[in-house]
Amino acid sequence: MVTSVDSATTAAASTSATKQLASNFDTFLTLLTTQLQNQDPLSPMDSNQFTQQLVAYSQVEQQINTNDSLKSLISLTQSRASTDAVNYLGKSVSITSGHAQLSDGQAEWTYALGTGATSSTLTVTDANGKVVYTHNGETGEGQHTFDWDGTDNNGQQLDDGVYSLSVTAKAADGTAVESAVASKGIVTEVNFTGTEPLLMIGSMAVPLSQAAAVRTP
């Protein structure tokens, strides 16, 4: 499913600014023409002053042309981003924000430890940042998988939604071990209502720029 873009306010503001600039440009031309028509033939306009006005005339014209060119470039860029985002529909996307979608009591993350650790703790938080589950993690160097059934520390089943995993690991000397968390999901919708396309995995919105990898499931 693709959500349509709602950018009427932004477009209206841009159009209004362009019209105002064009109006100022037309006013400038009218004033300059009137000044030339009504100057005293025996005491014409100073050449330096006239040159400065022509330079100002040219700068206003260039600004209008530049604005038009920028609008075209932005439109092309947004169109390309939208086309790229649509290509993600139905594909598996990997993200490294730590977020994952809990769906039908199932969420999955992978996490990696930079070196071996003596202890590691997995902490799951909900969308409000509240800790809902903690568990001892693997301590070996490299990548590990964490499958969560959506139950909290009291064994109660939590609602489907977006949850986050963080990993805290320590070495024998007490120093922190570097870790990284990733998750993946199938893109079912693309949302274009913001400034950047959002890939929807269930109720989880992933900015297109945060997609670390994509592949056909």
Strand order of the largest sheet: 7-4-10-2-14
Helix content: 25-40%
Which stretches are low in confidence, meaning pLDDT under 50 for 5 or more residues running?
Answer: 2-10
Radius of gyration: 29 Å
Helix/strand-derived class? alpha+beta
Report the principal-axis shape: elongated
Number of domains: 2
- Which architecture of the largest domain per CATH? Sandwich
Number of strands: 14
Largest sheet: number of strands, sense, barrel closure? 5 strands, antiparallel
Spatial separation of the terminal alpha carbons: 18 Å
CATH topology of the largest domain: Immunoglobulin-like
What's the overall average pLDDT, rounded?
80
The top-level CATH class of the largest domain is: Mainly Beta
Strand content: 25-35%
What's the helix-strand series? Answer: EHHEEEEEEEEEEEEE
How many DSSP H or I helices?
Answer: 2
Give a verbal description of the structure.
This protein is α+β, with helices and mostly antiparallel strands. The chain folds into 2 domains: 2-86; 92-215, Immunoglobulin-like (Sandwich). Helix content is 32%, strand content 34%. It contains 2 helices and 14 strands; from the N terminus they run βααβββββββββββββ. The chain has helices at residues 8-37, 47-86; strands spanning 2-3, 92-95, 99-102, 107-113, 119-125, 131-136, 142-148, 161-170, 176-177, 179-186, 189-191, 198-201, 204-207, 211-215. The strands form 3 sheets. The protein has a 5-stranded antiparallel beta sheet, with no helix packed on it. Strands 3, 5, 6, 8 and 9 form a 5-stranded antiparallel beta sheet that branches. Strands 1-11-12-13 form a 4-stranded mixed beta sheet, with no helix packed on it. A hairpin with a 5-residue loop joins strand 5 (119-125) and strand 6. Helix 1 (8-37) runs antiparallel to helix 2. The longest helix has 40 residues, at 47-86. The protein is elongated, with a radius of gyration of 29 Å.
